[in-house]
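Protocol step 4 of 6: structure prediction from sequence.
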Amino acid sequence: MRHSEGWAGILTSKLLMGNMMCDTVVPKVFGLRHPLFALEELSMRQNRQIRDVVFVDGVRTPFGRAGEKGIYANTRADDLVVKCIRELMRRNPELPADRIDEVAIAATTQTGDQGLTIGRTAALLAGLPQSVPGFAIDRMCAGALTAVTTTASGIGVGAYDIVIAGGVEHMGHHPMGVGADPNPRFMSERIVDPAALNMGNTAENLHDRFPAITKERTDAYAVASQNKLAAAYAKDQIQADLVPVATMKPGAGWTVNTVDEPPRPGTTVEDLAALKTPFRAHGRVTAGNAAGLNDGATAALLASSEAAEELGLPVKMRLVSYAFAGVAPEVMGIGPVPATEKALRLAGLGIEDIGLFEINEAFAVQVLSFLDHFGIADDDPRVNRYGGAIAVGHPLASSGVRLMNQLARQFAEDHSVQYGITTMCIGLGMGATVIWENPNFNANTEGSAA
């Protein structure tokens, strides 16, 4: 790598980091080595290895329905994030606040109450020390997932020890796509199919591409998602990770929200068969077999394994690998397939090694296309044991950590599982997958199906 000289001059030295070579710059002032860099020079002589990254804890707000009738109609998006950050700190009192090295918060629509570099503003509003930096991140639906992988990479190379990563979306205040100004070249030069800019149309395109995925199958899958979430609530498998949020509605007073608003328990396939298909006449995608428009926030605590051990922090999962992949934007729902194949390849694993799947249910057809590709049955007990976004909701950039929370809790319940994945499709034609290892794994433990 070639460096320009600058005011002090730059010497470039190579530091071996695991299997990677990186540049470390050592300033030289008027030909004399500056004493402040003595320690850095010492560290350059050390062989540094990529560190293990662990998932310590994760929380979320109850998810609400977007719109003026939703529970968060009069609640700010940044206040939802603040609730999550404060709850993480309350649940982990052994963690000094000044040990947090970064706060990364995602939002798809970065304006208004979820703009202004929300990672930094939420950190300040939550009462973290001013020395704790923060930033905002955007990868549409995979925003929180990307906040996790980005900061996890920093932990891996030693830039951070402990981070908070999460996401927020207030679709009631900021409907998806409002204020966006797509470049006209997308259409005039046919860079993408016009359907790519409407997520419902991309789901209909998946039905066209995979005719074996019928509306009857997607409706049945959606009903199963509702039933699994209801069963998980009945077993108290959801509530432990929810942060109570007090909200106020004019004329109704204050309410403390402790459960998700979107679920519709008792939904039947007959109910779903009667719904309209808004994206295409005689189509297959409906409000019943797709995630709704929702508000909510999530946050996770990640650390190096060394920092977790030093502070006595719990270890719920260990990060194994992650991958992102691009696909044709007009069939964005297939994105988790190449992303998962890449993540498995990086980890040296096969799909048969994965004991639990947390797949974001943006659309039922998208989940079923993934399952069909890998030869997994629609009702496989490894898949979305607690239900998914069709039932619980999908506040865009926040959902990645919701998947991680649920996988971590399933790891704690089922010690027969060694590896699990969290995976999502992403608007504009992408997919994201993270592979996690269960620290509780015991090969002699009998598996659980619920």
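Step 5 (inspection) to follow. Residues 53-175+195-437 form a domain with the Peroxisomal Thiolase; Chain A, domain 1 fold (CATH 3.40.47.10).
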